[in-house]
Amino acid sequence: MHKLLEFEAFENFMNHCFFQSLQMESKTLYNPKQSSKNLFIASHKTCFIDSFFDQAFQNKQAKLRPVKISAMDAGWIFKSKEGMDFLKSLASSDRMELFLVPAIKHLIIFQWTQIYPIIRNRLFIPFLLIFLSIHFYFIYGYESQVYVRKSNAHEQEPIEEIQEGFHQFMIWYKSFQGVLILWQIYIQIMQVWIHSFKGFLRNFWNLFDLFSVIFLILIIVADFYEFDPLWVRPFIAITFLLFYFRLFYYLRIFD
Question: CA–CA separation, 58 vs 33, rounded Å?
């Protein structure tokens, strides 16, 4: 079915895919929960108005009012290979008018209710942790290590607050940071596995994510081998910039 996206008549085809079950069609009065939107779109397992439907949408204290309750059979799109091919083709399509088709809008919003928690928990929160950790590492950890090395090179005693327990703390901290970096690498590998290597390279943001992780690893290696800070700090600035761009990109999920 994903090949239908290439035809101009596909928009009209999708406009006729919306339907109501007999039970929903006969439901003309309902006491829905208050919402700022006139159209209620949410995940529901069946096209029947059952007890679970009432828990999600009904407010028994509200007054009955005229409603139109509709449903769309979209199970095949989420559970079959053809459906996944359709969604991938839709995501890469340049025909913006397709996204104005009510049926497609409902599909996207339905899917978003399922995908949003996954993106938030598996992508955004780990990214936020590594984003905060590199701030601590670049601003405090790395510069403190540089100071300690210079002090040792000149046979001077570093400040006690920096020297006392500093090395042990950095070992624990770098272990934690290493776990976060391994998770970022795992995410990149999974994207290559899902989209293929060529498909991965065609996406600008995939390359952006990849280079930010590579730069971070290079800085950690340079720190381990005690490279000259004058060479390392420009890479730190570039890595900061890349991670801030990634943060702005992730913030779109809260729009």
Answer: 5
Domain ranges of the chain: 2-110, 118-254
* Token pair listed for 213: 């992780």
Chain length of the chain: 255
* Distance of alpha carbon 223 from alpha carbon 40, whole angstroms: 54
Percent of the chain at pLDDT > 90 equals: 12
Report, in angstroms and rounded to the nearest whole number, the Rg of the chain calculated over CA atoms. 26
User: Residue 65: phi, psi to the nearest 5?
Assistant: -150, 160
DSSP assignment, residue 33?
P
Which token pair is 116?
């949003």
pLDDT in tens, 172-186: 887 888 888 899 899
Strand ranges inside the chain, DSSP E:
29-30, 65-66
* DSSP helix/strand/coil, 66: strand
**Which single residue is written with the structure tokens 């290439």?**
6
Instruction: Tell me the whole-structure pTM to 2 decimals.
Output: 0.66
pLDDT 10s digits, 209-225 = 889 999 989 988 888 88
